[in-house]
Amino acid sequence: MAVKIPGADAATQATAPAADSAYQLNLLYTGEAWSNVSGGLKRGSVYLYNADGRLSVDTERAFGWTGGQFVIEGFYQSYNSLNNTFVGATEEQSPIDAACCAIARLYQLYYEQVLGPTNIRAGIYDLETEFSNLKPMAVFLSKNLTWNAALDQSGTASRQGTIGPGNYPYTPLAFRIRQTLSPEWSVQAVIANGAADDPNRPQNNGVFFSSKYGAMMIGEVDYTPNRNTKLMAGLWELTAKLPTNDMFNPDGTARYTYGDTGGYFGGTTRLYSGGGRRGLDGFFTVGVASGKSTDINKSLNAGLVFTGPISARPADKLGFSFNVNANPASFRHAVALEAGVKLDRYEPSFELTYRARIFDWLTVQPDVQYIVRPSYDPTVRNDLVIGLHFEIGQLFNL
Predict the structure, then answer these.
(1) Residue 269 and residue 227: Cα distance in Å, rounded?
(2) Is residue 19 scored above 80 in pLDDT?
(3) pLDDT band at 155 (very low <50, low <70, confident <90, very high)
(4) pLDDT above 50 (res 278)
(5) What is the CATH number of domain 10-397?
(6) Highest mean pLDDT among 150-159, 200-209, 244-253
C-alpha cells in the first residue's frame, strides 16, 4: 500500500521494483506553492511541504502469518498556513496545511488482519482514509473534499480548543472492524479516542486519553456493485464534553454539553466510459451534525472527475467540485453576541484541478479554488486562490 496523504491518490506513487517483498518503504515529499490572489484576510503567497515515510510489513511473506499487515508511518510538516494567514475560510485549501505550527508526528502505527470476510485494524491511524470516503474525491486538494466538513469539524470549532475527530494530522488510537456480507455489501465500524492529542500541546506526539474528550464512534454501510460505483451511509457520535455555541452560565462562561452526533451519505458512479481507464465519474456527499457546538452543521459537496481527458495520457485526472458549508443558528447567534458581526449561513466554494503523473517518481497538480464569503462573513471579499501541488515519491522493496 502506498503512503496516503489526504488529497493524494494512487497516481502519486512511484513504481515499485518488480519483485514483491515482505518489507516495503515508501518515501514521499509533497510541496505546494500557493497564492491568495484576491479577497480573504489579505493577499499573499506561501509554500507548504510535507515529508512522509511509511514502512509496511506483509506478515505472510515475513513470518508465514497469513492475512496480516503491519504499518508504521510518520511525517514532518512545515509551519506555514495558507488558510490562517491569507484566506480565513472554515476549512483549509490544502490537505497538508496543519494550520498551527511545524510538527513532526507519528502519523500511523497499526496492525491489520484479514480473517475470511472479516478485516480488523487496531492502532493509530487516519479515520478519513476509510470512512466517508469516495475514490474520485482523492484528486481534490481542499479539505472540504477529503472528508465531509460536518464530520471534520465535530469537536474542532475554534472556540472549543480541542483536537479531533481522528484525521490528519492528529490521528487517534482506534479499533476498526469491517465485515464483507456479499460481493456488493459491507459494513464497518470504528471506535477511537475523541481527542487524538493534548489540545494544549499540539506539537507533542502520544496517545491522549481524557474523559473530557471522550470517544469517537463511526458506523458505515457500503454498497459497491462494481469498481466504479459506490453508495455509502454512516452515523457518528463524539462523546466529548463540548462548550455550547450560545448557552451561558450565570457567570458568563459557556455552558457545556456532552456529545455531538451526525451522519452522512453519498455515492459515486461512472457517467461515461472512454475505454480502459478513461472515463467521467460523478460523486456527491452530504453531512449533517447537531448544531450545539460546531460552526458547520451541514455540508454538501459534489463533483466530476475525468480520468484520461487526453487520450495519450490515460492516467491524468481533470476535476471540478462544488462545496457548501452551512452553520447552525446557535453559531451565528454566538458570533453576533461576542463580536457584533452578522454572519451569513452558507459558505460555498469551488475547485478546478488537473493531476498529471510526469514520471514514475513525479506528479504535478495545478489547482484553482474560489471561496464565497470565507467563514460566512459577508464583509470579507471572496477568495481566489491558485496553487501548484507536486509530489516526489519512491517505493522500495527491502
Answers:
(1) 9
(2) no
(3) low
(4) yes
(5) 2.40.160.180
(6) 244-253
The confidence band for 298, taking pLDDT boundaries of 50, 70 and 90, is: very high
C-alpha cell at 88: 480565513
Whether residue 151 has pLDDT greater than 90 = no
Query: What pLDDT sits at residue 162?
Result: 52
**Nearest residue to 369 via CA among 313, 319, 307, 295:** 319
How many residues does the structure list for the chain? 398
Q: What is the pLDDT of residues 379-388, one digit of tens each?
A: 999 999 999 9
Each domain of the chain, given as residue ranges in start order, spans: 10-397
